[in-house]
Amino acid sequence: MKESDNIFAKPLEKVPDFVFNEDVVNVFPDMIKRSVPGYPTIVENIGVIAAQYAQPNSLVYDLGCSLGAVTQALRRHIKQPNCQILAVDNSAPMVKRCQEYLTAQDAMYQELTPTQVVEADIITMPWQRASVVTMNFTLQFISPEQRLAVLTAIHQHLDPQGVLLLSEKLRFDDEKEQQTLNELHLAFKRANGYSELEIAQKRTAIENVMKIDTFAIHQERLLKAGFSKVTLWFQCLNFASMIALP
Ligand SMILES: C[S@@+](CC[C@H](N)C(=O)[O-])C[C@H]1O[C@@H](n2cnc3c(N)ncnc32)[C@H](O)[C@@H]1O
Ligand SMILES: O=C(O)C(=O)C[C@]1(C(=O)O)C=C[C@@H](O)C=C1
């Protein structure tokens, strides 16, 4: 049963750093839909875009898969023969629940792309060649000093006809733009039923563990990692999704 997110609804003596634990897993579908403007559109169209780049007989990564929303979209849209999806997350409760959801999807639909869910750390795991890599609001939780190495490894293992699909919360160098889009994001959260207390406590919880960059920094880092072209295909308020070509 999908629960509604009220993790930060009561005043906390000390707000702990945000962790993708069992409590978050239980409310995650509600939390991310009410916190990330455009999330359903991004997830579904990652499936559409990935299907244009997936190569036959290749691996597809969903990095930081959480409960597998993107993995399920990939399974619905990718039709190339003999593709395999590797859904990766370093949260044990996320991996356990993701496997349960994918098993349920298997029971409802025939001939979905075979998928394996693994608990692993993107920073240290061994890489395999792939034609599609998705990182949907995951890189922002990896420490900034480790992001280039991760993206370089992804590029080195990416099929020349493949693609990296990267979604991130953005910050903006222009002060007025930052203030406007940040305020509109808070309005989005209020419109989705979050109280001022929940918004404030969630901000405190993520401020040390979720470090966001500008689009320019993402673009520069991706080009440095070896990607040839970075295209912004979607933005809703301060949340965006990019196509990075090898
Ligand atoms: C905002 S959630 C991603 C949302 C998900 N991709 C989706 O579209 O529904 C971030 C996820 O990244 C995972 N994560 C964070 N750091 C990681 C790491 N170093 N290795 C693997 N997974 C990581 C977290 O456990 C969490 O499930
Ligand atoms: O920026 C915020 O206020 C958020 O809650 C963002 C965000 C995210 O982008 O991943 C943070 C944690 C949860 O995974 C859901 C949403």
Q: What structural class do helix, strand and pairing data support?
A: alpha/beta
CATH class: Alpha Beta
End-to-end gap: 41 Å
Identify every distinct bound molecule in the structure, by name, code or SMILES: S-adenosylmethionine, prephenic acid
**What does the average pLDDT come to?**
97
Q: How many domains, as an integer?
A: 1
Which regions are unreliable across 5 or more consecutive residues at pLDDT < 50?
A: none
Q: Largest beta sheet, briefly?
A: 7 strands, mixed
Number of continuous helical runs: 8
Helix percent reads 40-55%
CATH-derived topology: Rossmann fold
The CATH architecture name reads: 3-Layer(aba) Sandwich
Major beta sheet, strand line-up:
3-2-1-4-5-7-6
Binned strand content: 15-25%
Q: Globular, elongated, flat, extended or rod-shaped: what is the shape? A: globular
The total beta strand count reads 7
Pfam families: Methyltransf_25
Family: Belongs to the class I-like SAM-binding methyltransferase superfamily. Cx-SAM synthase family.
Enzyme class: transferase
InterPro entries: CmoA (IPR005271), Methyltransf_25 (IPR041698), SAM-dependent_MTases_sf (IPR029063)
Structural commentary:
The structure is a single chain. This protein is α/β, with parallel strands linked by helices. The chain has a single domain, classed as 3-Layer(aba) Sandwich (Rossmann fold), CATH 3.40.50. 43% of the residues lie in helices and 20% in strands. It has eight helices and seven strands, in the order H-H-E-H-E-H-E-E-H-E-H-H-H-E-E. The chain has a seven-stranded mixed sheet with strand order 3-2-1-4-5-7-6, with helices on both faces. Helix 5 (144-156) links the parallel strand 4 (130-136) and strand 5. Helix 2 (39-53) crosses helix 3 (69-77). The model has no long low-confidence stretch (mean pLDDT 97). Residues 31-32, 35-36, 137, 169, 202, 206, 210 line the site of prephenic acid. It catalyses: prephenate + S-adenosyl-L-methionine = carboxy-S-adenosyl-L-methionine + 3-phenylpyruvate + H2O. Catalyzes the conversion of S-adenosyl-L-methionine (SAM) to carboxy-S-adenosyl-L-methionine (Cx-SAM). This is Carboxy-S-adenosyl-L-methionine synthase. It holds the Pfam family Methyltransf_25.
